[in-house]
């Protein structure tokens, strides 16, 4: 294990989220500190799905503050803006797929999983740098194929390391003007929002709702234009029609 004043780097761990929570319990992980592991043996994603974690990609967790815009439903989108900005620094034009995925050239390249215990919030995130799951390893209802930075731009990706990416993100987070960002994250998210003004389908509890993606509200909710008017949703799986 290596540690500086903002990032702990592990060779291997079961789950970076579990490691981060243990550090919080031991008072060893402060706001915007991060944990990075080269591999995970028991990583988890959304809805308890297993997280394939070969070496070469980013598997990390960062502690978020209990203040806007990280204190409510918009936390995933606010963090997505920061990760997208980090990837843009390295030359990758990144879109945000509501609510917690990052997309480049039509493929999912990163995802976020938020976990909260009491007033403490940790975001686990993965970024496909050198590899990604093949189509056979994805669930059948996956909205997008997976991709990785190396597939998109081999030369740029070859010059990156997981540490470089996470250090850039942590630097960005630690220098945020949180009061200003609380008022600007929505504009930033809208500028990167995948499928904005396009026909989409939102799956909620087995029900499919079709409409046009009209935007996101101030709480991070999806704004869907339907024949009955604008309907806001705080959860669900979004896909292109």
Per-chain topology:
Elements: E1 2-3, E2 7-10, H1 16-25, E3 34-37, E4 43-44, E5 50-51, E6 58-64, H2 75-89, E7 95-97, E8 101-104, E9 107-117, E10 120-127, H3 149-152, H4 154-158, H5 162-174, H6 178-192, E11 199-204, E12 207-216, E13 222-226, E14 229-233, E15 237-240
Parallel strand pairs: 2-3
Antiparallel strand pairs: 1-2, 3-6, 4-5, 6-10, 7-8, 8-9, 9-10, 11-12, 11-15, 12-13, 13-14
Helix pairs in contact: 2-5, 2-6
Overview of this protein structure:
This protein is an alpha+beta fold and 241 residues long. 26% of the residues lie in helices and 32% in strands. The protein has helices at residues 16-25, 75-89, 149-152, 154-158, 162-174, 178-192; strands at residues 2-3, 7-10, 34-37, 43-44, 50-51, 58-64, 95-97, 101-104, 107-117, 120-127, 199-204, 207-216, 222-226, 229-233, 237-240. Helix 2 crosses helix 5 and helix 2 (75-89) crosses helix 6 (178-192).
